[in-house]
Write a structure and sequence with these properties.
Strand order of the largest sheet: 1-2
Oligomer: single chain
Strand content: under 5%
Number of helices: 19
Helix content: over 70%
Number of strands: 2
Structural class: mainly alpha
Order of helices and strands: HHHEEHHHHHHHHHHHHHHHH
Largest sheet: 2 strands, antiparallel
Radius of gyration: 21 Å
Length: 432
């Protein structure tokens, strides 16, 4: 038996364990030599990327992976479940985390002087939380990882602009605590009526409960409210603009590219894999979601236009893009959901790239005001070219991934006989 044959069955848990252990070891590495911290986090993220890729290949070849922790079989024990969807989400987390770690060297030195080791420690713990949220099959274990990712995000934001970063982090902390409380209440209500914490077991029990169960309806309402705050869905977005604007550029890219996307994935997973799709549709939650998403698309686009700070403009644009994703899933048809999934990928990569470019411009020029960007193309041709490509994809110009995802969303809206949403997509694209 080779070393890989011994490790291979445990790759699902290593998806979480590797960044967790690496995060705890980062202070020791930094104590030996602060310059090693960057190499260490880059190495850790590369290993996580290999693990995530290997897990996805296994899922494609052999089907869904079930990995139990401890001596108890599910539904009594905790299990990690990796299927095609969350395996792909894990790969996105790992790839973006790795690329951001490469970018971070000079940016973190300038924006977080004297705190590089602490920054990279929290960086890896954030990845741990996001990975755990994505693959756990236990609803309370999900909440634990949600808190880990939230606390680390607060810490990263607080390391940003002097004073403003701390205030933005505190505002996010308040809103995030309210959101987490809603989600915990939802978990408590579901446990009260099902007696289990295993998500798959919970769904099978919920299918046999009366359709008008008020406790289950209250749980769904709490989950939707909590996740809406977490992803920054209008009008529960108050924390997002300041958090994205005042966080260090590396943190902004990481949180904008990953944190809200994993939150959206979790929201959709709870809607359709814990509750039943029929129940969610019957109580009109999908209809509420689509109208809220349409409003977010327009309002986010309008508010983005009014900004002069590049990071703040990108922050408000994110509110609009979250609306696109949720619109696709709220339509509850195959083509709309395909558009939503594709837009998760598009927004994760493109918005991360845009924030990294904004950070590079600030590092080189010290400027974030877009009205002072004249002549930037000559000074930083490669950087501005990357910005242009990412921006065109966010707008949805033909030939880009963004166009394909918006095209699917429009077709899904037509299939659902919601022509107003087609108009919303067109108007928002013009505003962008």
């Amino acid at each position: 038996m080779t070393g890989f044959d011994f490790i291979a069955p445990h790759l699902p848990v290593l998806t979480v364990v590797v960044p967790l252990i690496a995060g705890f070891l980062t202070p020791i590495v930094g104590w030996i030599d602060k310059r090693l911290s960057w190499y260490w986090v880059m190495l850790a993220m590369f290993v996580v990327l290999l693990i995530a890729g290997s897990n996805l290949v296994t899922v494609i070849d052999s089907g869904t992976i079930h990995y139990k922790l401890g001596g108890w079989d599910p539904p009594f024990g905790i299990e990690y479940v990796i299927d095609l969807l969350n395996g792909f989400v894990c790969l996105i987390i790992a790839f973006i985390g790795f690329m951001v770690s490469i970018y971070s060297l000079e940016s973190v030195k300038k924006e977080v002087p004297g705190k590089t080791t602490a920054f990279y420690t929290v960086f890896l713990l954030l990845i741990t939380g996001l990975m755990g949220m994505t693959i756990t099959g236990d609803i309370f274990n999900f909440y634990v990882f949600l808190e880990i990712s939230s606390l680390t995000a607060y810490a990263l934001i607080a390391m940003g602009d002097r004073g403003d970063g701390v205030v933005a982090s505190f505002n996010y902390l308040i809103m995030g605590t309210v959101a987490a409380s809603f989600i915990l209440l939802g978990i408590g209500y579901l446990y009260a009526v099902t007696g289990t914490l295993n998500m798959a077991d919970m769904q099978s029990i919920l299918q046999n409960l009366p359709e008008n169960n008020k406790v289950v309806l209250a749980a769904l309402a709490f989950f939707m409210a909590g996740f809406s705050i977490k992803v920054g869905l209008f009008p529960l977005h108050a924390w997002l603009p300041d958090a994205y604007t005042h966080a260090p550029s590396t943190a902004s890219a990481l949180i904008a590219g990953l944190m809200t996307k994993v939150g959206v994935y979790a929201m959709i997973r709870f809607m359709f894999c814990v509750f039943t799709p029929a129940f969610v549709i019957d109580v009109n939650m999908t209809e509420i979601l689509t109208w809220a998403a349409a409003l977010a698309i327009i309002v986010g686009s309008v508010l983005a236009i009014a900004q002069s700070d590049i990071k703040r403009m990108l922050a408000y644009s994110s509110i609009s893009q979250i609306g696109y994703i949720l619109l696709g899933f709220g339509l509850v048809n195959v083509i709309g959901m395909q558009g939503g999934l594709l837009h998760i990928m598009n927004h994760a990569f493109m918005k991360c790239a845009l924030f990294l470019v904004a950070g590079a411009i600030f590092y080189r020029t010290g400027i974030r005001n877009i009205y002072q960007f004249q002549g930037l193309g000559k000074k930083m041709p490669v950087t501005t070219t990357v910005f242009l490509i990412a921006a065109l994809s966010m707008i949805g110009v033909p030939g880009t991934v963004g166009f394909t995802s918006k095209w699917y969303l429009a077709l899904g809206s037509i299939e659902a006989d919601q022509w107003l949403f087609v108009a919303v997509i067109l108007v928002s694209s013009l505003l962008n």
